[in-house]
Design brief:
161 residues; mainly beta; Jelly Rolls; 7-stranded mixed beta sheet; 2 helices
């Protein structure tokens, strides 16, 4: 996990999670593969879209994220799982893929989505605390008509380790 500190004038340190990961095969810092799950996103009209996601549940997995990857297949993503609500920010340092992120409440409600530019150290965080963060290829949420207020069904067995 990397700590990124805002300028002292901000007076608030911000925990930043890298949004990137090992090779194109997934993988944590130890060279293995991350566990996966299928989640379902549901828009206001009831339209459903499924995503196969890698699960980043430990501090090390969340810190590594999608760093250094060259691409991510459509219909894939990474779900960052926290053991409690957080306001931690995300950045794109060492992340080569343009991504969109959804900050998701514990009940599965999408709080907000943001687009993130590759290799940027700009800190992305939502206005309110969240329990999950979902990263996908940039534009995926827009193409599927998903945004604030829509829902994410997360399997019950997806919990922090």
């Amino acid at each position: 996990m990397r700590l990124a500190f805002l300028p002292l004038v901000a007076l608030v340190p911000a925990l930043a999670f890298a949004c990137g990961g090992g090779d194109n095969k997934g993988g944590d810092d130890g060279g293995g593969t991350l566990p996966t799950a299928t989640i379902t996103l549901i828009d206001a009209a009831g339209e459903r879209a499924e995503l196969a996601v890698e699960l980043a549940r430990t501090a090390a997995e969340r810190g590594r994220g999608l760093m250094f990857r060259e691409e991510m297949a459509d219909g894939r993503g990474m779900l960052f799982v926290f053991d409690r609500e957080t306001k931690a920010g995300f950045w794109m340092k060492d992340t080569k893929i343009p991504l969109s992120i959804a900050f998701v409440a514990g009940d599965g409600t999408i709080l907000e989505t943001q687009d993130m530019a590759p290799l940027s150290q700009e800190l992305h965080r939502p206005a309110q605390a969240y329990r999950y963060a979902l990263e996908v290829n940039q534009g995926w949420f827009a193409r599927h008509g998903l945004g604030s207020g829509d829902r994410v069904e997360i399997p019950a067995d997806v919990a922090p380790e």
